[in-house]
Design brief:
This protein has 143 residues and is α/β, with parallel strands linked by helices. Helices cover 38% and strands 18% of the residues. The protein has five helices and five strands; from the N terminus they run E-H-H-E-H-E-H-E-E-H. The protein has a five-stranded parallel sheet with strand order 2-1-3-4-5, sandwiched between helices. Helix 3 packs parallel to helix 4. The chain is globular, with a radius of gyration of 14 Å. It starts with a strand and ends with a helix.
Length: 143
Amino acid sequence: MHILVINGPNLNMLGIRQPEIYGNTTYRDLLDMIQAEADRMGIQVSFFQSNHEGALVDAIQQAYFDKVDGIVINPGAYTHTSVALLDAVKAVSIPTVEVHISDPDTREEFRHISYIRAACMATVKGHGLRGYLDALHLLCDNA
């Protein structure tokens, strides 16, 4: 099984950006944690991060051509604004789990809306970085 982990805007700033919300763990530490879990599970994982909406759409579309079995996506702020990401996930029909480190429903009102959620098989929110591992397991358990 091959899972693509996609991270949107500002996730590369983990450990720096609002540590009171996102913690002190760095983006590199997050990738290492996910890779270690994937190794334990015996699955292949690859990573993509961009601050640009079109690049995220391109990565989702490329996952189709690369025959990826599942996508874990934290769209960051694009969660609340991007119909393009929603349409891309719908277009490729790859099982996808939406992940959020914090729980957007407990934050500002505008963060309560997720456009991409309609195309996802599940959403993991408010579990911290562990949510990415939960998403890996959800994809594998439902494969």
